[in-house]
Design goal:
The protein has helices at residues 10-16, 44-57, 65-71, and strands at residues 2-6, 21-24, 32-38, 75-86, 98-112, 119-121. By secondary structure, it is an alpha+beta fold.
């Protein structure tokens, strides 16, 4: 199955916070379910920026920085359906040049795994959504 590494707290917000857009600078032809990999790295600034955005929009807040860093970084945290690759969107989450439209997020038990750039293959026996 394919996976995409996404920095925290954005990956948590996809699975638990209603984030329906993943901003990118590139399009993809991939459609269907993929695994959401929470990247190992996360800065205090990235966390604060995400929390400030969520607060300004009245959206769900991610858990505290230390909890995310300890329990939710460096592995698979869930899956989502990639419905389309867009040039624009009315979603409050759209902030980039291009975006992936996401649907039906499903949490999975945390599975430690090293991430990679772009979509990458994960053996089915490691994680089954």
């Amino acid at each position: 199955m394919k996976a995409l590494s996404i920095r925290q707290p954005w990956s948590w917000l996809i699975i638990h916070g209603g984030k329906d857009i993943e901003n990118r600078s590139w399009h993809t032809k991939l459609r269907g379910r993929f695994l959401v990999h929470a990247a190992k790295g996360m800065t205090q600034k990235e966390y604060a920026d995400a929390c400030n955005f969520c607060h300004s929009q009245g959206l769900n807040q991610p858990p505290c920085f230390d909890e995310l860093k300890q329990y939710w970084c460096g592995g698979i945290i869930g899956s989502a359906e990639l419905g389309d690759s867009l040039d624009s969107s009315d979603s409050p989450w759209y902030m980039g040049q291009k975006a992936f439209l996401l649907r039906d997020p499903k949490p999975l038990p945390f599975t430690p795994l090293k991430g990679r750039l772009g979509f990458f293959d994960v053996p089915d026996e490691l994680v089954t959504p």
